[in-house]
Amino acid sequence: MTVETFDPGNDTPKAVQPNTTHATKVAPAMGQGRGTGTRIGFISLGCPKNLVDSERILTQLRTEGYDVVNSYDGADLVIVNTCGFIDSAVQESLDTIGEALNENGKVLVTGCLGAKEDEIREVHPKVLGITGPHAYEMVLEQVHNHLPKPEHDPLTALIPDHGVKLTPRHYAYLKISEGCNNRCTFCIIPALRGDLVSRPIGEVLDEAKRLKEAGVKELLVISQDTSAYGLDVKHKTGFWNGMPVKTRMTELCEKLAEMGIWVRLHYVYPYPHVDEVIPMMAEGKILPYLDIPFQHASPKVLKAMKRPGKAERTLEQIKKWREICPDLVIRSTFIVGFPGETEEDFQLLLDWLEQAQLDRVGCFKYSPVEGAVANDLAELIDDEIMEDRYQRFMAVAARISAERLQARVGTEMRVIVDELNDEGAVARAYSDAPEIDGKVILGGEFDVEVGQMVWASIEFANEYDLYATIVRDDNDEIEDLG
Ligand code: SF4
């Protein structure tokens, strides 16, 4: 089962393919457990931030000796970590809770939809307990109320230092903060997840180091607003390895760059100080990849959205970034059909997109999420008009994507292998984030492993993916990305 979620709170990283939104996973459980006989099933829905929350809860459960099992039948209780942004995500979450209740009967709910307890109780009054997002301790407390902590078991010592991970071994999400201080009018994430709270920089860097030591080769930095990191603590100086480090995106990137693995930035809000990380990308210290949700280009719509950025200035900024770092790949998300968007506004957006030549672009039709200020700003756009704009937008985005990928044919790129299949292997280059961007399909005969880095010769491109053959092995550092 996968769940589609539009999570504009995180300015959802869905990229190039139309009709696909960020999808994460699920499982009644992860089969991680070998504990003491007290068994919990776990279902994780939604965005990477939710996935990280799930990892933390699962780590704590395993630390306390609970067994995590992968069937409803075998579980003494099931936890559903929900997504609650747009209507389809809410519905999927409610359906999943219903399924867990039917199949098991003892269900705890947490995550974004948990912030709307009444809505859940109305449909599922039998749920045992409900908590909101990133309420790790409260989830554990509720678990203890229904399933007493198991006796300490030496098997818990088998939990790795980096905790339970739900991503493949070679990449991991690094969540640097919770919440958001912005108030984009289409978004209810601040209401669900609260204001910005940055994690101490020493703690973030410790986690990054542990992940690297566990074999992670690619860190995906996530938050609601990565460029705001440290604003809430006035960028105070923390410590790592005995050295002072400011709680700030640039300084964080500098330290992560020293770890010698791929570092990819997601959810970067277009503040001016984003300029500071571009030289690091040009030098190959962090991946030349920016996930920066622009959302629109019409000044009127951006203002109504309460988003920053005059579109012209953003174009200049992009041009400057590319001059400094020609390899830079920019991915972004946009909303069409925002209340009050006129054909002229939309045309401005299309023109802007043509000029910006973004590599990876996702688009969402405006969804009137309950509680979003934008719903009352102007009349909602008619569905047919919205669909028409969506199709026109995606057609332009797809053409640009195809042209930009075509330019890679004949080059060599360093790629990381994500999966092996009967026909070969599926890999990604620096230009693509897992799950949300395109792929590099490797054909031919070769002997590679998941997580291995190799150099590939790009032979063919379509609108979203590249097709290549492996030319040589390479497990070294991240230089020469192009
Ligand atoms: S309010 Fe914050 S979380 Fe929501 S879209 Fe704006 S920046 Fe993202």
Structural notes for this entry:
There is one protein chain. By secondary structure, the protein is an alpha/beta fold. The protein has 3 domains: 108 residues, Rossmann fold (3-Layer(aba) Sandwich), CATH 3.40.50.12160; 237 residues, pyruvate-formate lyase- activating enzyme (Alpha-Beta Horseshoe), CATH 3.80.30.20; 60 residues, Beta Barrel (OB fold (Dihydrolipoamide Acetyltransferase, E2P)), CATH 2.40.50. Helices cover 29% and strands 22% of the residues. The chain has 12 helices and 22 strands. The strands form 7 sheets. It has a 5-stranded parallel sheet, sandwiched between helices. Strands 18-19-20-22-21 form a 5-stranded mixed β-barrel. Strands 8-11-14 form a 3-stranded parallel sheet. Strand 3, helix 1 and strand 4 form a beta-alpha-beta unit. Helix 1 crosses helix 4 and helix 11 runs parallel beside helix 12. The longest helix has 24 residues. The protein is globular. Iron/sulfur cluster binds next to helix 5.
Quote the beta fraction: 15-25%
- Distance linking N and C termini: 36 Å
Shape, principal axes of CA atoms: globular
CATH hierarchy class name of the largest domain = Alpha Beta
Task: Write out the distinct hetero groups bound to the structure.
Answer: iron/sulfur cluster
Query: Segments where pLDDT lies below 50 for 5+ residues?
Result: 1-35, 476-482
Proportion in helices: 25-40%
State mean pLDDT (0 to 100 scale): 86
The CATH superfamily of the largest domain appears as tm_1862 like domain
For the biggest β-sheet, the strand order reads: 4-3-5-6-7
Number-wise, the strands total 22
The CATH architecture of the largest domain can be given as: Alpha-Beta Horseshoe
Task: Count structural domains.
Answer: 3
